[in-house]
Amino acid sequence: MHDQMVFVAAVTVLGVLEQAYFSLQVIYARRKYSVSPPCITGPPEFERVFRAQANCSEYFPIFIAILWVSGLYFNQAAASLCGLLYLYGRYQYFRGYSKSAQGRLAPLYFSAKMLWVLIGLSSAGVINYMCQLYLEVDFLRYLKQLIGL
Amino acid sequence: MHDQMVFVAAVTVLGVLEQAYFSLQVIYARRKYSVSPPCITGPPEFERVFRAQANCSEYFPIFIAILWVSGLYFNQAAASLCGLLYLYGRYQYFRGYSKSAQGRLAPLYFSAKMLWVLIGLSSAGVINYMCQLYLEVDFLRYLKQLIGL
Amino acid sequence: MHDQMVFVAAVTVLGVLEQAYFSLQVIYARRKYSVSPPCITGPPEFERVFRAQANCSEYFPIFIAILWVSGLYFNQAAASLCGLLYLYGRYQYFRGYSKSAQGRLAPLYFSAKMLWVLIGLSSAGVINYMCQLYLEVDFLRYLKQLIGL
């Protein structure tokens, strides 16, 4: 399992570093706009940074769960690549949202698309694995043979 | 490990799909009640949907962590079954909370109970595994023999 | 993998129990200060408890992800120890924040430090593993030999 998941583990560490970066930005925004904890309301500039980080945090566990299931049951390389693109989309989302509510939309749609790709990969992987285990059919191998991989 | 966890992985994918469904409901509620991001306050109808999704998101990582530990150290079938019941309870909770603050209570207690069962299973599994490893005693096997499994 | 991760799994179960404890404290605070859901604003005493739990929940998935990667790719004992210290720091943070906004700072810095140690361990573990796999160099073993382990 270790060999098979090392790139997924690397993407996980990168994701954690990204979340740490977002959290630091909220701390800087709290200082800049003088919003002391536990208060979470303030000027729109602060609220946008706060909500951007809250939204990324909310999706983080969903991302990690689906990333690992994709890596375990579909394919490590595909899962890691989608994971990297998702993290890139989230970075653009955070920067965009910090500037304006409008600026969050394009990267939000992009990172949502990456999540859907990961959901697709993991569903395909899990269903195929069950078919292999109980029906002794391996659709993914047929597909790979078909496209000559 | 793959064979042993495929149902837990399937429940994980279902859980991610459920969270995606809840997130879409918040987007619809934002449009319906004209609450633009980053604002998170509005009419009680909106705030209930928003809080229902926030509460489910908050418990999602706890659920996934305990589900996988139960599957790995106790038993895949028991973990997956409790996981499915938990997700069903969360769906009822979301629907109930969307209608009234009162409507969230019964399914909330049900899904909390399922979480406690998973905490119990994973604690039993981890403690038994440690006893096996260091004391060479396997309580769970004795128990299974006792009830004739 | 089971033997290698049993202490990490035990720390995970402890972390889930800690989150359950924090959630119960929010329910008690809601009753004490008469703040009914979906409302999340109220007297500062309530808001501090609410924010303390929200902050711990936000970091929980980050903590679990980095704990498991550290355990899988660096070393179980080191990961579990840092994990225990992190959970202890979070408990102190919750108690401190419940009393005053100032009281959250020292344990917050402590638990943040533990997270950074875990990020360091997992990065070292993953990079070393990749070097082993593709460059056939094992830095961590050299280091262990150097310090006579």
Automatic annotation (TrEMBL), chains A, B, C:
Cross-referenced PANTHER family: LEUKOTRIENE C4 SYNTHASE, MICROSOMAL GLUTATHIONE S-TRANSFERASE
Taxonomic superkingdom: Eukaryota
Locations listed in the record: Endoplasmic reticulum membrane; Nucleus outer membrane
Protein's job: Catalyzes the conjugation of leukotriene A4 with reduced glutathione (GSH) to form leukotriene C4 with high specificity. Can also catalyze the transfer of a glutathionyl group from glutathione (GSH) to 13(S),14(S)-epoxy-docosahexaenoic acid to form maresin conjugate in tissue regeneration 1 (MCTR1), a bioactive lipid mediator that possess potent anti-inflammatory and proresolving actions.
Chain ranges passing through the membrane: 59-87, 108-130
GO cellular component terms, A-Z: endoplasmic reticulum; endoplasmic reticulum membrane; nuclear envelope; nuclear outer membrane
Keywords noted in UniProt: Endoplasmic reticulum, Leukotriene biosynthesis, Lyase, Membrane, Nucleus, Phosphoprotein, Transferase, Transmembrane, Transmembrane helix
Main location as per UniProt: endoplasmic reticulum
Family statement: Belongs to the MAPEG family.
Protein name per its UniProtKB record: Leukotriene C4 synthase
Reactions catalysed according to its record: (13S,14S)-epoxy-(4Z,7Z,9E,11E,16Z,19Z)-docosahexaenoate + glutathione = (13R)-S-glutathionyl-(14S)-hydroxy-(4Z,7Z,9E,11E,16Z,19Z)-docosahexaenoate; leukotriene C4 = leukotriene A4 + glutathione
UniProt xrefs under InterPro entries: 5_LipOase_AP, FLAP/GST2/LTC4S_CS, MAPEG, MAPEG-like_dom_sf, Membr-assoc_MAPEG
Pfam families according to UniProt: MAPEG (PF01124)
